Amino acid sequence: MSKLEFVDLGVTFGHGARCTTAVAGVNLAIPSGKVVGLVGESGSGKSTLAKSAVGLVPLSTGSVLLDGRNALGVVKGPRPIQMVFQDPSSSLDPRMPIGESVAESMTGVRGRAERQARVSDSLALVGINPSRAVELPRTFSGGQKQRIALARALAANPAVIIADEITSALDVSVQGSVLNVLREVQRRLGLTMLFISHDFAVIRYVSDVIAVMYQGQIVEVADTELLLSAPQHPYTQTLLASVPRLGGQHGSSALAADTQFIDAPTTGEAGCAFRTRCPLDAAPQPAGDRRLCLEEDPQLLASSRRHRAACHFVTGVAAS
Amino acid sequence: MTNRIRASATGRRWMAVFRTPVGATGAFLILVFLLLALVAPLVWGEDAARIDVDGGPGRHLLGTDSLGRDILARVLVASRLSIGLTLLSTAIGLTIGILLGAAPSVLGRHAGRAVTASINIAVAFPGLLVVLFFAVVFGVGMRGAVLAIGLAMAPSFARLTQTLAASVEGREYVAAARVAGVGRFRLLFRHILPNIAEPLVINATIAAGGALLTFSGLSFLGIGVQAPSYDWGRLLGEGLNRIYIDPAAALAPGVAVVAAGLGFSMFGEVAAKVLSGEQLRPGEGPLTASSIAAGVAAESTDDDDVLVVEGLQVYAPSGQGEWVMPVRDVSFHLKRGETVGLVGESGCGKSLTAMAIARLTEAPVRVRADRLDFLGESLLVSRRAHRKLLGTSLAMVFQDPMASLNPSKRVGRQLAEVSEVHNDLNRRDAMERAVDRLTAVHMPRARQSARQYPHEFSGGMRQRAMIGMGLMGSPRLVIADEPTTALDVTVQQQILSLFEEVRSTQDSAVLLISHDLAVVEQVCDRILVMYAGRIVEELLSADVGTSARHPYTRALLASAPHLETDRDLPLVVIEGSPPDPGLVSRGCAFAERCEFATDRCRHDLPELVPTASDHRVACWHPQTDPTYLSRRTT
Amino acid sequence: MTTDFTKAGAIRLPNRRVHRPGTDFVIRRTTRFIGSLWVLVTASFLMIHLIPGDPVRAALGLDAPPDLVASRRAQLGLDRPLWRQYVDYVTGLAHGDLGTSTLSRVPVSQIVQDRLPATVEIAVLSFVVVMLIAIPVGLLAAVHTRGGRNRGLDLGFAATTAFAAAIPEFLLAVGLVYVFAVELQWFPVAGRQGPDSYVLPVLALSLGSAGALARVVRVEILAVLDQDYVRTARAKRLPARLIYLRHALPNALTGTLTLGGLLIMGLIAGTVLVESVFAWPGLGTTIVQSILQKDYPVVQAVVLVYGTGVLLVNLLVDLLLAILDPRSAIREA
């Protein structure tokens, strides 16, 4: 049993005037053996959240809990939470044979033979020929390197895997080879996983639950099919509507003349962070109600709404 | 086993250093002087000390000094002290420098910062000044000079070590090792130091050259080596007083200093270049500039044709000094008001095709084509003649909008200069036009934005500015190379819509290059699929979902997950990767990754032939079975 | 999609939104300057105490009469507690008192006043010459050798500049003296009389730096020519002249200026050696003589003056960079 929880997690960088908030009070739980997908645009704080779980960025508030205990307390030895990074060509030491990189995260190994056997097992698990363990990373293709990085994470015998944009540096033609292995391993070992991507299609394929992140906050969480079929937060709706679909409309007619500029996010201040980009703005709303968006933080009552949506205008209440 | 592999790879790279003429000369000089330092005192020691009062001309090649000692012998003998002291002080500097520079990686945050701050301050003073300071403190003489030079070198080595270590620490493999639970010291010795050793060694070599010069300078001033010992600097100082009578006494040690110094710095610099992966230039290619095919005068061009490309080939030097052909044979045409997509995996030649069409490739890349007509004019003739035509009628939009705008110029100026150059507008009118065009691409507060710098813009705004730049003229063709790859999906939609608006209002043709079939299918009328430098299929986007024929196109489509992908099935994967441009086979380049490939595919090149109107395929076994669709929709 | 929060997209805290990276940068750099200055003053103060043994004994010789040693110690203030001496030293500096030469008994401030102009003259002249040679030569070399064209020129440029940069100033000075003063007798061998006498020292100081800087200019320009925005400029079909002068050169200046600053610092230090060759009546000859004669108050003062000059140049270059390239200030933030 290994449940990963982010509790009131906040991360800020810099001091004083140059202070930026990357993650602002995130509460998110990943049930044991489940995959939670985290989706959002660049700068939304996804990667920072991922790094905070393995202690690569200092927390300014809150905590990361593994089965209710502080997950960042372990100082020595391999951590129960392992991470796979975005760019496989930079996440493997170019001067270290891949077998050694994989071995580095193993614990409780006695003797060379066992070590080698476990490296072989890990590599075989991700579909890399174990006889290539002595080769340097540069002899492998991008997809293979990413699977080796996964093997390294698995060698630590982790309870939780954090996968941060692990396919965004790969061509779509080999992306599948990594995702297939990842999913198979996750199911076979019953791993708990936080899977981060900016690509909704990829997130949907891998995850049991999807969390949508915007400006350092989680704005909606729901089971994958539910979130896709009935997104509650206007930001989720916007994101989903933006995903290009194969076999949908095509040719010039597909794009309406929707070129209006919606680019700048709201920064700071009270109220809803999404309000300047919110499509609800265009919809007719009672003027009095819309003032809520300016004045009240929709995060406050989020847990009582459907999909925990951080929006004042979500109808319906949270199921159970 | 593992060590051997590592050693041989490193050895091969160092051998490349010796193979360059400059590197070999440097290595040779270093070797000669090291040998001299070892043997010269034994061989010429007596000659250097013997006083030959009536030494006639001819007995001493370079004459004698004021006491009648042979100058050549003295210069040769002095190499031991000069080289030896240089190496000693370099070793001192390097050791202290590495210790200081690596300290922040191991120490805690505050101690690390303190070390860094002291290094920063120490580096601000020039070496010679620090040397003089320490020379005073340690006292005039050889020991003082060695220590002084060593200590003076330390801060810059420390800074270098620290910068290199910091850049390695930023790499994800260090983060990965941290997550794996690797301790600080193991991190330093197994991951950081091995990855910075090479540049450190190289810089130490260059610095040794500098130390040699500084040491000679000190001895020359009388602060370094003291009589009766002598090094080159001391000989030089003694010789300078007699430069009227006997120039050789001053020039000979001077030559020795320069030769040894050059040896160190030449070898170091070449090593730095070669090992940092800077490509050695290939020899003369298979083509000369004149062999670019003179274009056949445009004949019977369809009035609607904006662009006609036939038999386009691009040659480029590979890293190994050979010539390869990343674009092998590309032919297509674009009509007025039409949006065409060019898709394929990375490395298949899409961008190079775009650059070649726009005549933007530069030496050493070479372009050849049977026909390259833009608005009825052949672009194969002279570039100069087409400058205005291309400047006003062809717009380019690139992948990374931040990098594509000049960071030190206001955005408005960057747009305005197009009209200044091509339409002879004055500065003010050009700026008005720029503001007008920024408005046309829906830039908020256009007048204000024109006065801003690119770094003040968001990614979407920058790409709008790039498109606005293309609209300064009246573009007949817009070539957009992965214009939305660096942008978020919500912004991607806005930019794609903007292209559509440009197409419809300006009636331009748009060539959209992308790796994302879904984007291309959504926006384009027609799609060209490229693989290993050739177009393998051309089809209407309406047909993509129903009747793609080439196995590559079908595999690309099937491999992209989308919002309806069956989550219970594994994703489709195209095994292997696109061939290296140097290793493209004789037959169909896709054969080795293709499940339908036969011997014929491996030996004979399939031509791009029409299978229906608006549909061309280059395949010996075009697929008609529609089941690939069932894999992608449930 | 690495998330980099120093770039756009990160959220700023609400009440901290107004800040100017430029001002911040200036304040930070000035602070660093003051810190370095303090280190310099302290170092020059400590220099006399770091010398093993007794500096007065060292200067006067072992057989000097004890009362002379004692009075000299008292005169230098060496008999007082260290902190007291430090306070006195710093207050003295603040009042322009640099101490008194132990040899000539002349106030050191007087010596500095006499000698400084000669050094500043050749340093400034040399810097101008370096810039006048390096920037055009580097730019032309870059334009004509980019992408592997004109390999002969490339090799010639590399060889010439490497050679120029590898010869130390004092050696070049000796060579110049031999050729132009001894053999050709076009310029005086040494001294500072009339415009003629400036030519050789300035050449000796500047040629090496010019070679080094020209290489940097070339590399920087080549790097800039590889940038996407130069591709954009070419896609705009601007004439070559505009591409190089308007788009490439200004962006190459950042690197050039950074190294240019280092070069001026090198030039300042190089005056020590070059002045000695030409018997130039500047601070360089003064410090060498004083070191050899163990006239420590003078050495202290000259180190201080040289160091301050270098720090000032450093500060100036940083501030100039911040003005020329607003990003460099932001990048640091």
Overall pLDDT of chain C, averaged? 79
- Biggest interface found: A-B, 86 and 79 residues
Within the largest sheet of chain A, what's the order of strands? 6-7-8-3-9-10
What is the CATH level 1 assignment of the largest domain in chain A? Answer: Alpha Beta
Weakly predicted, low-confidence segments of chain C: 1-19
Largest sheet of chain A: 6 strands, mixed
CATH superfamily of the largest domain in chain A: P-loop containing nucleotide triphosphate hydrolases
Structure report:
The complex is a heterotrimer of chains A (320), B (634) and C (333). Chain A is of the alpha/beta class. Chain A has 10 helices and 10 strands. Chain A folds into 2 domains: 4-93 and 153-229, Rossmann fold (3-Layer(aba) Sandwich), CATH 3.40.50; 231-320, no CATH class. Helices cover 30% and strands 19% of the residues of chain A. In chain A, the strands form 2 sheets. Chain A has a 6-stranded mixed sheet with strand order 6-7-8-3-9-10, with helices on both faces. In chain A, α5 (142-155) runs parallel beside α6 (172-189). Chain B has 634 residues and is α/β, with parallel strands linked by helices. Chain B has a domain at 2-275: MetI-like (MetI-like fold), CATH 1.10.3720.10. Chain B contains 23 helices and 13 strands. In chain B, the strands form 2 sheets. An 8-stranded mixed sheet of chain B has the order 7-8-9-3-10-11-13-12, with helices on both faces. In chain B, strands 1, 2, 4, 5 and 6 form a 5-stranded antiparallel sheet that branches. Chain B starts with a helix and ends with a helix. By secondary structure, chain C is mostly helical. Chain C has 13 helices and 1 strand; from the N terminus they run βααααααααααααα. Chain C has helices at 21-50, 55-60, 66-76, 82-94, 108-145, 151-166, 169-183, 196-225, 228-235, 240-278, 283-293, 296-324, 326-332; one strand at residues 11-12. Chain C starts with 10 loop residues before the first strand and ends with a helix. The model of chain C is unreliable at 1-19 (pLDDT under 50). Chains in contact: A-B, A-C, B-C. At the A-C interface, β2 and α1 of A face β1 of C.
